[in-house]
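Entry:
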Amino acid sequence: MQNQTPRNDNQFNSGAIKSKTENFVSDIEKKAATVGVEAQDKAGDLYQTAKESLAATGEKFSRGYDIAREGLSKGSTELESLVKRNPMMAVAAAAGIGWVVGRLLAPRIHSNR
């Protein structure tokens, strides 16, 4: 009788293990490549969205700036016209404003000494 160990299905088959390992590694590489492409696509989408949002914000800011500039220009013209029509009232208003600001700041000026 020879001492041969009968082969059973539970024994390791190195060729099968190698093949399964290679398939597993190949699957992981494919999934990693897919994830990388999807991540690049998402990053591109986010970049485009941010770029569009920034452009829209810039346009809104520009319009708001133009409106404010026009309003200040109109207000400045009206104030200049009012001062030319009533110079004494303008001097009195400036003096009154100066007095109020002085009264508001006086406690702070004296407390810093």
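Residues 20-111 form one domain.
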